[in-house]
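Note to self: the last two entries modelled the partners one at a time, which told us nothing about the interface. This time every component goes in together.
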Amino acid sequence: MATLPDGTKLPGKLFIVEGIDGSGKSTQLDLLHKWLVSRGYLVAFTEWNSSPVVRQTTKRGKAKQLFSPTSFSLLHAADLADRIEQNILPALRAGAIVLADRYVYTAFARDVARGVDREWVRAIYRFAIRPTLAFYFRVPLDESLQRILVGRPELKYYEAGQDLGLADDPYESFRLFQGRILTEYEQIVGEFGLTTVDATQPLVRQQARVRRLVLPHLKGALKVEHRPWREVLAKEGLHGSYLTTGPGGDKE
Amino acid sequence: MTRVLFYGRPLPGMTETRLPGKLIVVEGTDGVGRSTQIALLREWLEANGYAATETGLTRSELAAAGIKKAKRGHTMGDLTMNLFYATDFVDRLEKQIVPALRAGFVVLTDRYIYSLIARAQVRGVDAQWIRDVLGFALVPDVVFYLKIDIEHLIPRVINSQGFDYWESGMDYLRGDDIYESYVRYQTQLISQFDKMSEEYHFHVVDANRRVPAVFTELRGSIKMIVEDLQSPTDSVLPAAPAARRKRAPRAAVAKAAQSPAEPPSPAASG
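The predicted structure of the combined assembly is written out below.
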């Protein structure tokens, strides 16, 4: 059950994943998504920092390095607010399952690592819907860094936390920044009762745990018939060659 | 500002306890004549040797373009709009207002957090939440609230820029009639401002009067506030040149020659 801040229960379910970069949370969420769809559930997916309303501003701020910790934090809050108002809330009201890659805890960890006040950032996100289940993928810093930095990818300015001036070298800055974020996450886990998943375990095992925990919450979730034309094709001996998604396509 | 004070949690990165400049806020509803007064005050301050600068809502380098674009599409929900405006505000606070105050400027601000709070509350947003969000705002040296009755406001708006979609609350009243909607929305806003008067110690200025009367009152108060800044020209301020003129008030702002027969316009844009 997802819950509004005022305690109102919503018919839909909100499952979210959290963890530092390289914890493997997106992979696990993707596997969960496929499983839910295969079981016939109507699933909506949303990810951090993806609202079209703030996109242009985010781009501008990053390109010109205009952000301060506070403006960065507020713009991310605007991003989530927009996704809640436009996508998440309507889907949950309708009884659907919503999967979110990163949620308010990302802001609590990252923005505080950037120097924003702990209480303030919690206060500004008071509008956020309480998730049904929040998974935290726990991974040691060295392991996540190894996963991310193995190919020496180009690290972006804010991604590496270079706005904090922790180190001149982007890689060193990234390390220090991620370390700070991890410390914040560890506090958040207890504070908000996140469900931890050991992200050093084999992927299959992690997914099994995620599904086992999600399963009891699925009762009553909205289902949708996938490929409803299948029956006609079989009965009439058609191929469905004019169907836009194709006969094997899946409108998810 | 003599002392740096915040309404809530301090702005991260602010270390000073004192700033040499002055922060002067002009608040009030759409079309009340804020920008006219600010234009007059700025010129008057500068004429008297004070370094003055101005800023206003949605003028940030970071978020101004994005907000304008989102408003054009009428796509923003209440929470999003509040947070987007807060982003714009903090960007201006950090990049324009605080640096100018540090440098000893008189900063004239066309609207401040009170407009954001009034707008949020009219739309039913949680009153404490919006105050928490904007808690990093500096407490200004003075907040002038230009108070006007809706009857006085309507002709001014028609005479200037007309009724704006958002200033008419069309996004949430959803009426067909923009005039009806404007009257209802602005009436609600005015009542929110009235309620905030005490909470935020507004200096209430009767803006039903003509521009010169309002200007004289504002100038009088500002004179006292900027006194300790030590004008380079004189320690006691002389009467400003703009005030001595017997021309229509707009002549002080618009440099273009005007027909003497033209009646004084009550206000430029709000």
